[in-house]
Write a structure and sequence with these properties.
By secondary structure, the chain is an alpha/beta fold. The chain has 24 helices and 14 strands. It has a six-stranded mixed beta sheet. A hairpin with a 4-residue loop joins strand 2 (about 60-65) and strand 3 (about 70-75). Helix 15 packs across helix 16 and helix 17 packs antiparallel against helix 18 (about 500-510). The longest helix is centred in the C-terminal third of the chain and has 28 residues, at about 570-595. The protein is elongated and about 130 Å long. It starts with 19 loop residues before the first helix and ends with a helix.
Length: about 650
């Protein structure tokens, strides 16, 4: 048995760590030294050949050095004549032996001139002939290679990014995971995650596995190896992972699926190996991979790539590390994606991701809880009703609700309010759903009347049809790309029947039907309505089997790269015929209902032109109480009255501010 207690501790090395930056700095200093001090420290002055001849004739020159290969003449000036040559130079700048140099046409001219001056007694010094060494050619020969090397170092550093530690290009294969140690700065907990009760319970259990594993393993169970969070964008998958990092008292590695993808072959697989190596050293721990579809796409379905694709190699390494031949105990994998349908089947199997946790859009009660979380930092007044806000935002995700709260605060600040009111939240919902209000948009009287008739057609049919969504308000004020809009409060159904879909389709076609009946012509304003109706009709016929000629058949194909239709050309023609038949039936139905209630429709259109915004109680006053009431509609009755009062009072406040 080895005893390490008597072993002397090793002294830390005093040698500095090698770094390429020191090498570059040394080369730079050497070049600078050669540049400034390579030719000595004496003063050198370039003169013309005529001036040189004059100095020699006057007897100023002491010695001459001729560089015959470049026809350059360099001469040393006599001490007593230095001031005569260097007239504007101080003594401290001259150096020991100041020289003058000039360029001569040829050595024959120089030799003939010097011979004449020697015979005349003007020059009796020494003459030295030498070849001048020119380093500029050598420099320009090596400069392109130096430039290429410098650019290579620069781009490799940029591509490798901050890989944790020094080394630059040598760390390109290292993992880019961000490590959150226990007791760190991450303050997100499960209390900050509103709604998502089912998903939160699943991930809370994973945290409990790590805190008290004996509770589950004493009965023979095994800790799950991984959990996949699946759901639409903005529903809180990443926030849930942050809460796990804040609650679990273990190390937490966080990274994105795109961090594995690199242009260099083998880098992705190398980063996967390095990630799991670090995770095993920190075990027990959690590894969170956000947007795992970037690397987990199904193999063999990448159009234009072969089986040796770098992304596929990275996925193969990930599969091996998650559940391969080696042991991987103590490491739990969390991943998130909104495209689970394109993930590889081997990645989704039990043993890798034992659980798939679906994070759906929040329902009414969950939206209330989410509003409660996001309203904490906002100064609100007594008029704000969280129940009303939750009912006004069906289909909103958690990110959308956060955006509503922020937009309401911005609207209140724009009007210099000290707190955020209910009307600010309603305006924020309208702003997000419909776009920015454009009251200054120029419209002719005929266009405004056509838009009012169109929107009144939607409102009339939604009031008369049993399964149509209850109406909240109708407006002809342009918003975004829309010239008018109708706000509904849809029932949050789990399933939708054929009659309900037909009523919704009929109400959507009400605008185009009203134009044909009461204007006598149709316009381009129904583009969005026709697009929605066409998609809905094809969904009913081709996917849901709601057709007399094609009953109980579904031609839906979820393969990403499906280049062939799952039906024949004859079936395609039948689908087209059934879609046309379904849409035409609902369009004729819409015209019949509008013809029956033509007078009420006219009053509604006139009221829209007058007020620009009308509410459900205006329809009740014109058409009477709706025959088919709904729970949501009954709840909205008092809220609409309050909303109408606030809307009518708001312009008065603006007028007072202007006055």
């Amino acid at each position: 048995m080895n005893d390490n207690r008597n072993r002397k501790p090793q002294k830390p090395s005093m040698m500095p760590r090698f770094n390429l930056n020191w090498l570059f700095l040394g080369i730079t200093l050497i070049l600078i030294g050669l540049w400034f001090f390579g030719d000595g420290s004496s003063m050198s002055q370039k003169i013309s050949w005529t001036k040189f001849q004059e100095y020699v004739e006057k007897g100023y020159v002491k010695d001459i050095k001729s560089y015959y290969n470049v026809n350059i003449i360099e001469a040393t000036v006599k001490n007593e004549h230095i001031k005569d040559v260097f007239t504007n130079v101080q003594n401290m700048q001259l150096g020991k032996s100041p020289v003058i140099n000039t360029k001569v046409g040829s050595q024959d001219i120089f030799n003939e001139f010097i011979k004449e001056q020697q015979e005349a007694g003007n020059f009796n010094g020494g003459i030295e002939y030498d070849a001048k060494e020119d380093y500029s050619g050598v420099f320009w020969s090596f400069f392109p290679f130096l430039l290429i090397f410098a650019l290579w170092i620069f781009f490799m550093r940029r591509m490798s990014g901050s890989t944790g530690g020094g080394g630059g290009v040598f760390n390109v294969g290292k993992s880019r995971a961000q490590l959150f140690e226990k007791g760190g700065t991450n303050k997100v907990t499960f209390k900050d995650v509103a709604g998502l009760e089912g998903a939160k319970q699943e991930v809370e259990e994973i945290v409990e596995f790590l805190k008290a594993p004996q509770k589950y393993t004493q009965l023979g169970g095994k800790i799950p190896k991984g959990a996949l969070l699946v759901g639409p964008p903005g529903t809180g998958k990443t926030l849930l992972a942050k809460a796990v990092a804040g609650e679990a008292n273990v190390p937490f590695f966080s990274l994105s699926g795109s961090d594995f993808v690199e242009m260099f072959v083998g880098v992705g697989a190398s980063r996967v190996r390095d990630l799991f190596k670090q995770a095993k050293e920190k075990a027990p721990c959690i590894v969170f991979i956000d947007e795992i579809d970037a690397v987990g796409r199904a193999r063999g379905k990448n159009a234009g790539f072969g089986g040796n694709d770098e992304r596929e190699n990275t996925l193969n390494q990930l599969l091996t590390e998650m559940d391969g031949f080696g042991s991987n105990s103590g490491v739990i994998i969390l991943a998130a994606t909104n495209r689970a349908d394109i993930l590889d089947k081997a990645l989704l199997r039990a043993g890798r991701f034992d659980r798939q946790i679906y994070v759906d859009l929040p329902d009414l009660n969950e939206r209330k809880a989410i509003f409660g979380v996001h309203l904490r930092p906002i100064k609100i007044d007594k008029t704000v009703d969280i129940d009303l806000l939750a009912r006004q935002t069906p289909g909103f995700s958690g990110a959308d609700i956060a955006n509503v709260c922020n937009e309401a605060a911005l609207i209140a600040a724009r009007h210099s309010k000290k707190s955020v009111s209910k009307q600010d939240f309603l305006d924020a919902v309208d702003r997000i759903v419909g776009g920015l209000e454009k009251k200054t948009k120029i419209m002719t009287k005929e266009e405004k009347q056509t838009i009012a008739i169109h929107e009144a057609g939607h409102a009339t049919l939604s009031w008369m049809l049993e399964h149509a969504n209850p109406l909240i308000k109708v407006t002809i004020v342009p918003r975004g790309n829309a010239l008018g809009a109708a706000w509904y409060l849809p029932e949050e159904r789990q399933i939708t029947t054929k009659s309900q879909m037909q009523d919704l389709m009929c109400a959507t076609l009400g605008g185009r039907a009203a134009e044909e009946l009461f204007v006598g012509d149709i316009s381009s304003g129904a583009l969005n309505d026709l697009e929605r109706v066409t998609k809905q009709a094809y969904g009913m016929i081709a996917y849901l089997g709601m057709s007399d000629r094609l009953p109980n058949l579904c031609y839906y194909n979820n393969e990403e790269y499906a280049f062939t239709k799952p039906y024949s050309d004859d079936t395609a023609r039948t689908i087209d015929d059934e879609v046309k038949k379904l849409v035409n039936e609902q369009y004729e139905r819409a015209k019949r209902i509008l013809s029956e209630y033509a007078e009420g429709h006219r009053q509604l259109a006139d009221l829209l032109i007058e007020k620009e915004v009308i509410f459900s109680e205006d329809l009740e006053r014109i058409f009477g109480k709706r025959k088919w009431g709904s729970r949501a509609e009954e709840i909205m009755t008092d809220d609409n009255k309050a909303q109408k009062t606030d809307t009518e009072e708001e312009p008065k406040k603006e007028d007072n501010d202007k006055e």
